[in-house]
Amino acid sequence: MSGMTDDKYSRLVSTVLKATSKLTVENHLGCAETMCQAVLASDNNNSSALNQLGVIKYLQGKVGEADLFFENALRNDHTNIDAALNRLNLRGVLLTQSPPDNAAFAGRGTVEGAQAVLSETMFEHFDNLKNGVEIKPGIPLASSCEALTGTELFKWVEAISNGFLAENDRSLTYYKQKWVKDPFHQWSRRWEYLFVLDEFYRLNRVEGKKKLRVLDGGSGLTFFPFLIASTQKALDIECCDYDDQLLGPFGEIVSRTKTQSTLNMSVADLRDLRFPDGAFDVIYSISVIEHNKELDKIVDEFYRILKPGGELILTFDISIDGSRDIPIDAAERLLGHLRRSFKEVESGLASSSLSDFINRNESLTTDFVRQNNPELLPFSSVPNVTCYCSVFRKAS
Question: Are 258 and 227 in contact (CB under 8 A)?
Answer without folding.
Answer: no
